[in-house]
Amino acid sequence: MMTLKVNGRDHQVDAEPDTPLLYVLRDDLKLNAAKFGCGLGQCGACTVIVDGKAVLSCVTPLLLLEGKQVTTLEGLGTIEAPAPIQRAFMEEQAAQCGYCIAGMMMRAQALLQKNAKPTDGEIRSELEPHLCRCGTHMRILRAVHRAVRLMDTANAAPLTERSTQ
Amino acid sequence: MTKSRKVASVVAVLLIGGAVAAFEIAWRPAIAAIDPPAPQSFDAALVKRGRDLAAIGNCTTCHTVRGGKDFAGGLPVPTPFGTIFSSNITPDPETGIGRWPEAAFRRAMRSGVDRNGQHLYPTFPYDHFTNVTDEDDQALYAYLMTREPVRAPAPDNQLPFPLDQRFVIAGWKLLFLRRGTYQPDPTRSAEWNRGDYLVEGLAHCGACHTPRNALGAERSSAAFAGGDVDYWHAPAINAQSPAPVPWDADALFAYLRYGWHPDHGVARGPMALVVSNLTEVPDRDVRAIATYMAGVFGAPPPDRKRRGDEVLAQTKSPAAQASNTNTAGAAIYAAACATCHETGRPLPYGGVNLALSTAISSPDARNAANIVLSGVRPVEGERSPIMPGFASSMNDGQVVALLNYLRARFSDKPAWTGVEKTIETARRTQTVFMQTSPEPYNVPVDPTQREKP
Question: I want to staple A103 with a disulfide (CB 3.0 to 4.6 A). Which of A44, B39, B294, B369 is the partner?
Answer without folding.
Answer: A44
